[in-house]
Amino acid sequence: MKPVRIAENIYWVGAIDWDLRDFHGYTTERGSTYNSYLILDKEPTLIDTVKHYKFDEMLSRIKQVIEPKNIRHIVSNHVEMDHSGSIPMLLDIAEDADVVTCPQGERGLKNHFFKDIKYRVVKSGDSLDMGENKIIFQQTPMVHWPDNMVSYLENHRILFSNDSFGQHFASIERFDDEVSQDEVITQAKKYYANIVLPYSQQVSAALDVLKNLKIETICPSHGIIWRKSIGEILKEYSKWSSNEVGKKGVVVYDTMWGSTQKMALAIYEAFEDSGYKATLCNLKNWHMSDAMTEIIDAEYVAVGSPTLNRRMLPSVSGFLTYLSGLAPKNRKGIAFGSYGWGGESVKDVEDVLAKAGFQITASFKHQFVLKEEALVEMKNKLKGVIS
Ligand code: FEO
């Protein structure tokens, strides 16, 4: 449980959550980290803390660098408890410390921790002088809560970006040049698709501000620190936040007796035949958060469900609720499904997709089992729509 030196007098003192497999409904197959950063100076400052049950791990790392009671400032870039959860316990030790946060942060912290805390409230452009080092704050509301802000350490050109640029990725390594680039970008993509996507407009605004800063290191509050691939992750964020999509179709479905699955496969093949990349996500085996990661760069999303008791299957309805909340923009939708009688599910899927802003480009329903000719007809019709 060693601290990790980031730069002269700056240390990572966070915690690694190897066991985490769910983060409010998103599967975290690689676990996560809660990154806390300590700046040694005349007024020692800690940037963010860790989840409450990881307090001892963070404290043990801090103790190897400094006497924790000497911390003078705790910067809270974000109220969500994976970053603020240990503030009250740390304040019991660092009794003279104040908590540096924006006005929304102060309100949020007061509503979480009913404790007498000394706040230092800052806004965009305000700074904190610690002696040799100075932090400049920038509010980034809604990336991911109204209280989010980032902290820029001017002399070291380090951006403490909190949730932005994070990944749920537990690793003994701390830097992007020590791990697989594919894996870290994949985890950043999953994080964006499942956490940040609804706030893409605000991300674009934040990126506009950040491009005026000289950044040599990005220290997010989850996962790996960026010091090699800063250009790449900024480029990916710009793409994801502008809802830029490629020639790709994602087919998400569940099935009862195999007919909706046959339709899903026909749609998948129509994408392939039309020169599109395609992904087939059977919700019996795919978690919806992984399907969302596929959707982040897809032009088409096809959603299929058979009809059960005049409704779509609960697995599909759960997925559509999740998808609607994450609100991807500029996507085309396709609804499909088989039925025995009634066949309400397809119209229901279509309605949810349309309400979520998808442009419905095709809809297919079929009674009972599909013969080969019906599948070929469906495929050809779709190929006409796609190309
Ligand atoms: Fe990592 Fe929005 O908290």
Task: Throw out a few tags for this protein.
24% strand, Metallo-beta-lactamase, Chain A, elongated, 2 domains, binds MU-OXO-diiron, Rossmann fold, 387 residues, 21 strands, alpha/beta, 5-stranded mixed β-sheet, single chain, 7-stranded mixed β-sheet
What does this structure look like?
The structure is a single chain. The chain is an alpha/beta fold and 387 residues long. 34% of the residues lie in helices and 24% in strands. A 7-stranded mixed β-sheet has the order 1-2-7-8-9-10-11. It is elongated. MU-OXO-diiron binds next to helix 2. MU-OXO-diiron is lined by residues 78, 80, 82-83, 144-145, 163, 221-222.
CATH uppermost class of the largest domain: Alpha Beta
End-to-end Cα distance: 55 Å
Low-confidence stretches: none
Q: Using only CA atoms, what is the Rg? A: 24 Å
Number of domains: 2
Question: Would you count the extended β strands for me?
Answer: 21
Kindly state the percentage of residues in helix: 25-40%
Helices and strands: which structural class? Answer: alpha/beta
- The overall pLDDT average reads 97
- Ligands, deduplicated: MU-OXO-diiron
Strand line-up in the sheet with most strands = 1-2-7-8-9-10-11
Strand content: 15-25%
CATH topology of the largest domain: Metallo-beta-lactamase, Chain A
In CATH, the architecture of the largest domain is 4-Layer Sandwich
**What is the number of helical segments per DSSP (H or I, 4+ residues)?**
12
**Any idea what the shape is?**
elongated
Largest sheet: 7 strands, mixed
Within CATH, the superfamily of the largest domain carries the name: Ribonuclease Z/Hydroxyacylglutathione hydrolase-like
